[in-house]
Structures are given as structure tokens and as C-alpha cells.
């Protein structure tokens, strides 16, 4: 036992003292925040400035497309969310063209369509929106948007929203309804998602829970795979340097394996704790601001979430690192180990690939089944506890299945480790691994 603790201490201290560990601990939260926030910021800003032309066959929408480019006055009232969506951001500059009464809109728009592929930066257009002359009354009228990119959905959607909003207002005005009344009658009623627990407690849901679900799932998965790779590399390095032969002469392979796995498990917990503390410190200002607005973190996070996170982190960690330890024991080079572990890693990542259906429907047959299966259980069940309130027996079954899986994996890993740690040369085949399990 003392030898196992010596390995544990050595693995832990040698890892946490590395500059890369300190760097990853400090900057991974920043990187993850950037990965979540940067795409949203880019979309909200239209992914750069856009210069588009609007070819209007009705001749009635000039005001709508010129007003959106004007800076709002400081005395103007704040716009509602619906009004904001019905206007274009300042990054989209509109060149309005009146083609009232024109029947052949495609031909009339050719000079502007040619400007999309022009090399002159001063006259070049990013897109052209064509509004047909029968847009107000035609049952089959269609807006057409041309652009260099087939995926410029943001610009297309915002231009179409402005055009349709104005067209609808004009239709209602033509039937005798005042513009102010139109705004009041078409005002949207916001929807607030609320999770209702079995005890009757209400918790706010919505986009916040979706984001938190992905964030905590990433925190659960990332350290397990990162430190699993570290175990694999460490074992291969010790085999290459023949250090393992000296270690095995003074302790059993099982003690060596247990010390390595447990030591890096503590490394993972140390890193996770540091990330959570950094998140709590950096988020304290935002939490205080949210409390002034009538919101608290308990609207999205319950204290029990952190208990489940600790439990399922350990279950996921020990499940995954055993697989990486096997790869390190049976392979002689890192390249061989990566080739061996790649398809297995893809299978283990299945819950992450289908995270959106799990978060949005945590009590579906798919989510319930995955949460009780070996390997997939820890991640899936934790996400279910985060966004819903699964029955306690579901959680108990998931924990028991995961513990049995870890016990089976650890026993198999110890057997393969005992034989493979001193094996050199050709990587063993699957039948050979099976023989190792039976004879070890």
C-alpha cells in the first residue's frame, strides 16, 4: 500500500508542477469562454460589415431600408426585442433601388448582380435582395436574395424580416388600421421557461440551462481524456526507457497501475476545482448584477448539482483512463497507441455528439437508456440531473452500473497491464489480448 501511495504522490506532484499544467489550468476557462461567446458575438455583429442592394419592385419600401441605416437619437425610447429584430444592425449598409412597376426584376437587377463578383472594393456588393412588384398582393410572390456565399443566412434573414414587417404593416394600413394600433396588436408576448420539480419547486430554464449543460458536460469530459492521454504517454515512456522494469521489481503491476490512475485522478480534481473557483470569482460581479435584476444562480444551478458533478466526474474519469492505460501497456510507441485508441475514443464520446437531444429531452428513451449503460452512463446521467429531476432509482442504477464497469475495466486493465507492461515488439492483436486476459 505504501508503494502505491508513493507512485500516487509522484504522479500527482510531477504533473501539477509542470508549466503546461499551470498554463492549462489558468487559460482553459478563458479559451472555453471564447469558444462559447465568440461565435455568438460574430453572429450578432453580422460577421463583419455587409454592403447590400435592395431592388424594390413595389417602390414602397424606401423608408424601411433607409431608416435602418440612421443612428437612433438619444431621446428615442428603447426598442422592444421584436422591434430590434425588425431592424437591421449598423453593420449592414443598404443601397436602395426603386424599380416601381418593373415586371422583369431579374433583368433589371443584372447591373447589381454583376457587382457581387466585382473586384472593385468601392462598388462591390455582398448581396442583392430582389422584392417583386406584386409583393403586397401576390399570393405566390417570393423575395430573392443573391450573395457570394450560399450560407449567408444572417444577412438574408434580417433583410427579409425588415421587408416582411413593412409589407405586413402596409397591408393592414390599407385595410383601415392605424400604424400605432398595428404595433400594439402585433406585440409579441414573451415566453419564460420554468422547470417544475416533483416537490413543486420552480426553477427558471431556457437558454441559460442549455449553455450550462454544455459547459458542465465539457468540464466532465475534458480532464478525463486529457489525463487519460497523459497516463498512456507515461506508460509508453517508462516502457521505452526501461524504467518500468525497475518499478515492477519492487511492486506489483496492480499497485503501479492503481497509483498512476489515482494520482492523475487527483490531478483532474485539482484542475476542476481551480476552474470552478475561477468561474465563481469571475462570475461574482455578474451574479451580483443578476441579483439586482431579480435573478440568482439558483435559478439555473442547484447545490446538489455540484455533488452529482463530483460523483460522476470520478466515475467518468476512472472509466476512461483504464482504456488509455491498456493502450499504453500494449503499445510500444505513441503513434501505435493513438491509432488504437482513436476509434475507441469516438465511441466513448457518443454522449457529447448527441448532447443537444439529451439536454432538450432528458427523459426521452434515448437519454434514459444511455444514462444506464456502461461507459455512457456518467456523462448522460449527470446532464439529466443538471437539466431535469430523474428518479433516484435511475441515478442509483447508473452509479452501480458505472462502478461495476470500472471494477471490470480495472480488473481487465490490471491483467493486460501485468503482461503488456513488459512486452516489446509487435502490438498484440485482439485474440492475443483475449489470451492475456485468460492467463494473467
Considering the chains and any ligands shown, give keywords for the structure:
440 residues, alpha/beta, D-Maltodextrin-Binding Protein, domain 2, 4-stranded mixed sheet, two-stranded antiparallel ribbon, 20 helices, 7% strand
In words, what does this structure look like?
The protein has 440 residues and is α/β, with parallel strands linked by helices. It has 2 domains: 51-185, 3-Layer(aba) Sandwich (D-Maltodextrin-Binding Protein, domain 2); 203-439, no CATH class. Helices cover 64% and strands 7% of the residues. The protein is built from 20 helices and 6 strands. The chain has helices at 2-16, 19-44, 62-67, 81-85, 105-108, 110-114, 153-174, 179-185, 207-240, 243-250, 253-282, 284-292, 303-330, 334-348, 350-353, 355-360, 365-371, 377-387, 392-420, 430-439; strands at 50-56, 92-98, 127-131, 144-147, 194-196, 202-204. Strands 2-1-3-4 form a 4-stranded mixed β-sheet. Helix 1 (2-16) crosses helix 11, helix 2 (19-44) crosses helix 11 and helix 13 runs parallel beside helix 19 (392-420). The longest helix has 34 residues, at 207-240. The model is unreliable at 68-76 (pLDDT under 50).
- Give the helices and strands as they follow along the chain: HHEHHEHHEEHHEEHHHHHHHHHHHH
Instruction: Describe the sheet with the most strands.
Output: 4 strands, mixed
Structural class comes to: alpha/beta
Residue share in β-strands:
5-15%
Report how far the terminal alpha carbons are from each other. 21 Å
Q: How many beta-strand runs?
A: 6
Number of domains: 2
Unreliable spans: 68-76
Tally of alpha and pi helices:
20
Residues in helices, as a percent range? 55-70%
What overall form do the CA principal axes indicate? elongated
Radius of gyration: 30 Å
Amino acid at each position: 500500500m505504501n508503494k502505491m501511495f508513493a507512485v500516487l504522490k509522484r504522479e500527482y506532484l510531477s504533473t501539477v508542477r509542470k508549466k503546461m499544467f499551470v498554463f492549462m489550468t489558468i487559460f482553459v476557462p478563458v479559451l472555453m469562454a471564447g469558444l462559447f461567446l465568440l461565435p455568438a458575438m460574430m453572429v450578432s455583429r453580422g460577421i463583419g460589415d455587409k454592403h447590400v442592394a435592395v431592388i424594390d419592385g413595389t417602390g414602397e419600401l424606401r423608408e424601411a431600408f433607409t431608416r435602418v441605416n440612421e443612428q437612433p437619437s438619444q431621446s428615442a425610447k428603447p426598442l422592444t426585442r421584436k422591434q430590434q429584430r425588425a431592424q437591421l444592425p449598423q453593420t449592414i449598409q443598404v443601397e436602395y433601388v426603386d424599380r416601381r412597376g418593373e415586371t422583369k426584376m431579374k433583368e433589371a437587377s443584372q447591373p447589381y448582380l454583376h457587382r457581387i463578383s466585382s473586384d472593385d472594393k468601392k462598388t462591390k456588393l455582398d448581396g442583392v435582395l430582389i422584392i417583386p412588384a406584386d409583393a403586397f398582393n401576390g399570393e405566390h410572390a417570393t423575395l430573392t436574395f443573391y450573395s457570394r456565399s450560399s450560407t449567408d443566412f444572417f444577412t438574408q434573414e434580417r433583410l427579409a424580416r425588415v421587408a416582411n414587417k413593412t409589407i405586413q404593416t402596409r397591408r393592414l394600413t390599407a385595410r383601415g388600421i392605424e400604424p400605432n394600433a398595428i404595433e400594439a396588436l402585433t406585440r409579441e408576448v414573451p415566453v419564460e421557461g420554468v422547470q417544475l420539480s416533483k416537490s413543486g419547486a420552480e426553477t427558471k430554464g431556457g437558454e441559460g440551462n442549455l449553455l450550462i449543460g454544455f459547459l458542465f458536460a465539457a468540464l466532465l469530459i475534458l480532464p478525463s481524456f486529457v489525463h487519460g492521454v497523459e497516463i498512456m504517454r507515461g506508460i509508453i515512456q517508462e516502457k521505452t526507457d526501461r524504467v518500468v522494469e525497475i518499478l515492477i521489481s519492487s511492486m506489483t503491476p496492480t499497485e503501479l497501475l492503481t497509483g498512476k490512475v489515482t494520482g492523475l485522478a487527483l490531478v483532474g480534481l485539482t484542475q476542476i476545482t481551480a476552474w470552478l473557483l475561477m468561474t465563481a470569482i469571475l462570475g461574482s460581479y455578474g451574479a451580483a448584477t443578476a441579483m439586482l435584476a431579480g435573478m440568482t444562480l439558483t435559478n439555473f444551478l442547484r447545490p446538489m448539482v455540484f455533488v452529482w458533478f463530483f460523483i460522476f466526474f470520478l466515475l467518468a474519469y476512472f472509466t476512461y483512463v483504464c482504456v488509455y492505460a491498456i493502450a499504453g501497456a500494449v503499445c510500444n510507441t505513441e503513434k501505435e497507441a493513438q491509432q488504437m485508441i482513436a476509434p475507441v475514443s469516438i465511441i466513448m464520446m457518443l454522449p457529447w455528439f448527441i448532447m443537444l437531444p439529451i439536454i432538450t429531452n432528458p427523459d426521452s428513451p434515448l437519454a434514459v437508456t444511455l444514462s444506464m449503460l456502461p461507459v455512457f452512463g456518467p456523462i448522460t446521467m449527470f446532464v439529466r440531473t443538471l437539466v431535469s429531476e430523474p428518479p433516484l432509482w435511475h441515478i442509483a442504477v447508473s452509479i452501480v452500473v458505472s462502478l461495476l464497469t470500472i471494477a471490470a475495466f480495472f480488473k481487465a486493465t490490471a491483467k493486460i497491464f501485468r503482461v503488456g507492461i513488459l512486452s516489446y515488439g509487435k502490438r498484440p492483436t485482439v485474440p492475443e489480448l483475449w489470451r492475456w486476459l485468460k492467463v494473467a
